[in-house]
Amino acid sequence: MFSFLGNVIWFLMGGVLLALGWFLAGCIMALSIVGLPWARSAFVIAEFALFPFGRTLVRRDVLTGQKDVGTSGWGFVGNVLWFLFAGWLLCIGHIMAALGCFITIIGIPWGWQHLKLAAITLAPIGLTAVTVDEAEKLYGIRN
């Protein structure tokens, strides 16, 4: 119930604009063949940014049990390039937004979501968003 309420407030207070921005960035990256790996990551971030409460990020190869281009050495190279050209700037932006949310006690949950987004913007290739329950089952964590 709290995840639902948090997602509704997040959506109304700018989450939809954040997700649309990431979606637009992914569309722009997809215009070139070279940008396709980063476009997929931008779409993952857009999906995660739309409703982040009750969700977390996991490596795609752990989820599927299979390696792919994004979880191989090429994914590492892609993440390094992403970090150098955009990741660190995007991370700083989300950290600044988180600090703004942390100013008030009621904004703390939204600040944590910005910190989760900051983490994914550092190296998003090879990650996917799942529910917290799926991640707990995947990694063998029990409540």
Describe this structure in words.
- The protein has helices at residues 2-30, 36-50, 60-64, 73-102, 108-122, 132-139; strands at 55-59, 127-131.
- The model has no long low-confidence stretch (mean pLDDT 84).
- The protein has a two-stranded antiparallel ribbon with strand order 1-2.
- It has one domain (2-139).
- The chain has 143 residues and is mainly alpha-helical.
- The longest helix has 30 residues, at 73-102.
- The chain starts with a helix and ends with a helix.
Outline of the structure:
The protein is mainly alpha-helical. It has 6 helices and 2 strands; from the N terminus they run H-H-E-H-H-H-E-H.
Shape: globular
> What is the string of helix and strand elements?
HHEHHHEH
Poorly predicted spans: none
Straight-line distance between termini: 17 Å
Q: What is the count of DSSP helices, taking H or I runs of 4+ residues?
A: 6
Could you describe the largest sheet, including whether it forms a barrel? 2 strands, antiparallel
Report the portion of residues in β strands: 5-15%
Q: Mind telling me the C-alpha Rg?
A: 15 Å
Number of DSSP E strands: 2
Helix/strand class: mainly alpha
Which range best describes the helical content: under 10%, 10-25%, 25-40%, 40-55%, 55-70% or over 70%? over 70%
Strand order of the largest sheet: 1-2
Multimeric state: single chain
The total number of structural domains is 1
- Give the mean pLDDT: 84
